[in-house]
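Today's session is about reading a structure prediction critically. Students often jump straight to the picture, but the first step is always the sequence itself: look for stretches that repeat, for charged clusters, for runs of hydrophobic residues. Only then move on to the predicted structure, which in these notes is written as discrete structure tokens rather than atom positions. Here is the chain we will use throughout the hour.
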Amino acid sequence: MLCQSWQWNHCKGRMLMAWNSGDLPLHTGVLPPFLYGKGIHNNWVLNEAMSSDFRFVFDASWTISSFHLYDPEPWSSGVVGNSKVSGVEMRSWEYVGNSHIGALYGSLLYHEANYSSLVKLLKCDGNYIFFNPMENFVYPYGYQSSFRLWKERILHPWRKRRIMACIDGINSLEKIPDCSLKDHMKLSAPLEFSFSLESLLPFIADKNKTIVLAVAGYSYKDMLMSWVCRLRRLLITNFMICALDQETYQFSVLQGLPVFKDPLAPSNISFNDCHFGTRCFQRVTKVKSRIVLTILKLGYNVLLSDVDVYWFENPLPLLYTFGPAFLLAQSDEYKTTGPINLPRRLNSGFYFAHCDDSTIAAMERVVKHAATSGLSEQPSFYDTLCGEGGSYRVGDNRCVEPETNLTVYFLDRDLFPNGAYLDLWRKKNVKAACVKKGCLVLHNNWISGRLKKLERQVLSGLWDYESGTRMCLQSWHNFKLTS
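Below is the predicted structure for this chain, in token form.
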């Protein structure tokens, strides 16, 4: 139909690409972490392939008559309900994000390919030919004999006239525009996510109305991404990121993460001096309980996980076996024997809270206590829910807060070990030791300093992110830490 009418927009139409694999990559650049299907991606790849010159790139728009493309996303074809709306208009923030990273990667900023110069694959008078519009020259396609023999047999005067007439007809019917990608990239537009916390929740939550929440600042962006990559590998999609600063927010948007900003987050968060025991750490941790309380009041359960918690398996099926009025928290006790609910041994970096009245009332008390405390939120959790000195303790692994009747259950450390339990981080093969133990998660705590924490996790192999390419590591990657 296209060949008969010649009525289509060469710049804005659907693009279909195919290439041979071979020994060389398609282009020299690093593929940006595009949100696929949200604009820029195809044109960026084409630009890099033309610039790298590893392939003979040609345009077959005038020759391919039909194709079948399965596309499960209705908006990408411009059809939404009974109205016609383009994908770009519907998801402008995603298009803006792709525009920003498209400009940051590759050669686009200093070299843009000229689409009008592409060699065209044409079918004229029953023959397939390549036509170079810049040199006004015709090349044979698929002919086994020599170029001289092709000229003799194919380009007889009468056939040559018919082929050139075909080419002239195409040139007169369709003036090929340059299709400048830069002209369509929204580089000056602010990089803002168009969703608030309230509007994100129904899209992200699972069928049980549960959210996995992480709170992170820019100094932990690589650890955040390793955590995200691990959850994605486990096919866990109901996670959200609370950004403590604008840098983390923009980074998360460019990585395609469901993120929102905390307008009340503390300012001047230190890059390297915000670990356990620092004043920065004390201020930052109080954000977590406040955000969790907000989400609970909106009617969603929350699994709060610090980004230094490595997930071996999805713990939610086990956590769901506990009913309402239970707060399930990791124990920070390092001794292998004895009670695990001793004073100040509740770790507020990994806990699961139901959105029931008892839990909400108890969390309100925690947030209020933390707001007036000169310490981090962690002591506020224990002193509020287990009583000062552990006066509300029940047995070796529980506490019951008397006013709200909330039960705090300290999770089994064989399944949810902290960073000091059994010296798991010092094992020669950390992963094998944890898998043998049956760990669902492993907390990278009980270590001082961001760089030491990062080094320990990367060297252990419990790492799923390559910061150089900003891509999740895959099973086929041969990732090695180099000095």
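Discussion point for the tutorial: The chain has 16 helices and 19 strands.
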